[in-house]
Amino acid sequence: MLPDEVVRRFSGGVTSLDSRTADGGPTGLQARALGPDLARGFMLLFIALANSHYFLQSSTILGGFPQDGSTVDNAVILLIATFVDGRAFPLFGLLFGYGVAQIARRQSEAGRDRKTTRRVLWRRSLFLIVFGFVDAMLFYVGDILAAYGVLLFLGVWAIRWKDRALLIVALLLFAVNALPGDSSMSTSADGPDVSMLPPDLFAAFEGRIGIWAIIALLGPIGFVCPFLIGLWAGRRRVLEQPAKHLRLLTWTAAVGITVSIAGALPVSLTLAGIVDKPSTDVLHVLGPLHDVSGVLGGFGYASLIALISLRIGREHGRITQPVAAVGQRSLTCYLVQSVVWAVAFTPYFADLSDNLTVVTTALLAIATWLGTVVLAYQLHLRSYRGPMELLIRRFSYGRSSGSISAV
Predict the structure, then answer these.
(1) Nearby residues of 55 by Cβ (< 8 Å), 6 or more positions away
(2) Phi, psi (rounded to 5 degrees) for 139
(3) DSSP conformation class of 29
(4) CA 377, 381, 387: angle at the middle one, nearest 5?
(5) Which of 99, 133, 263, 343 is paired with 119 by a 20 to 30 Å CA distance?
(6) Among 228, 21, 24, which Cα is nearest to 108's?
(7) CA distance 218 to 383
């Protein structure tokens, strides 16, 4: 159990589970739909599994996985490469766009004009860029918060687009990302460099600034497609009202996940050592195929979770309620993961990148996620928000939002 005085200090002392929503402000806990929060909660498990194995060092690396592990390691590689890698971040992008659509809708319902809505979202983007920079410099250089901040800063204008424009641009970018090339991390032979495993804190600052800038400026290119689809889905409240969109969700879950698995297998079977490594030219085709099919997989996962939330209904169970609590505090829980990676892998802390295997790293990722589930549920039981959620909402909406229980 968490000491009440500690929780109160980091959550701003807000204890109400009020279901109200401020005029144009964030949504109260009781007013939130289960589907999006449940998707965000499970998404963080996938992100933990996707990020952690890139810290491992070995004489032979492919797709971020050591190629000299045991049979059990190879089995875990097959699972992660098929169901997680390249699938977690499109799901993240979809939910991010969905959340932006929710904010825009609440602003509109409160009678706010587009200029006011843009200011709210631009403040939010600035917060993500600043805290993404802090996270990258101190903890995890692969942080994507700044990339989403840049995406939001530019993507604000997409809120005004017609549905057809959103879908057409998303489809074009989807097609571009499917083009053959050598930029896919799923087939990269590079191991972790000094920016991920710096010998000391000062070396981290020097090596990470350039990497952070590249991720922040170029990362949004790969996230635009799911972001735009998230905007489109958010306008229709697809994840919040799954009963009204059963056909769409069922087909998206079935087709998206099936295509995702089929598109991932050529790479995942190679990474797991089940088939021989193909030529470089073939990998330049298979890598983008793995990644672009993962976009559909992210859509499929979101749809499946929405259907599950419909079956569960408003009565949250012993598993779904804690996971949804993580989703309600996703930014805080994401940053907890970054701290764990820094402590576990950085040479001037535990320095485990040479000692852990694919299996033990996956177990560390699962344990980290379970730790955030416990933390988030304890905060939920005390009616407290996550500290990062409190900060971003106060920064976006002003101090008045602190009086509303919204996460």
Answers:
(1) 192, 196, 197, 341, 344, 345, 353, 361
(2) -125, -70
(3) G
(4) 65
(5) 133
(6) 24
(7) 38
Residue 65 forms beta bridges with which residues? 62
**4: pLDDT confidence band, cut at 50, 70 and 90?**
very low
Which of helix, strand or coil describes residue 65? strand
Say whether pLDDT at 113 is over 60.
yes
The structure tokens listed for 272 are 């797991």
User: Do the beta carbons of residue 197 and residue 345 sit within 8 Å?
Assistant: yes
Helices (H), 66-113: 71-83, 88-109
Residue 148 lies in a domain: yes
Structural domain containing residue 270: 4-401
Q: Which pLDDT belongs to residue 245?
A: 96
Identify which of 131, 221, 110, 216 has the alpha carbon closest to the alpha carbon of residue 173: 221
**DSSP-based three-state secondary structure for 180:** coil
pLDDT in tens, 51-91: 999 999 998 999 999 999 999 999 999 999 999 999 999 99
327 is a domain residue: yes
In a domain, 11, yes or no: yes
What lies within 8 Å, CB to CB, of 363 at 6+ separation is none
407 located within any domain: no
Taking the whole predicted model, whether its pTM rises above 0.85 is answered as yes
Closest Cα to residue 240, out of 105, 68, 60, 392? 105
Rounded to the nearest 5°, which phi and psi values hold at 189? -100, 10
- Distances, alpha carbon 291 to alpha carbons 2, 59, 82, in Å: 40, 25, 10
Number of folded domains that form the chain: 1
Q: What angle do CA 362, 290, 178 make, to 5 degrees?
A: 145
Share of the chain above pLDDT 70, in %: 89
pLDDT tens per residue across span 257-293: 999 999 999 999 999 999 999 999 999 999 999 999 9
How many Cβ atoms from other residues are within 10 Å of residue 16's Cβ?
Answer: 13
- Which residue, 104, 114, 64, is CA-closest to 84? 64
According to DSSP, the residues that pair with 3 across neighbouring strands are none
Residue 66 in 3-state DSSP?
strand
The one-letter amino acid code at 19 reads S
The answer to whether residues 15 and 383 touch, using CB atoms and an 8 Å cutoff, is yes
Q: How far is residue 97's CA from residue 105's CA, in Å, rounded to a whole number?
A: 12
pLDDT category at 146 given cuts 50, 70, 90 is very high
Sequence letter at residue 105 = R
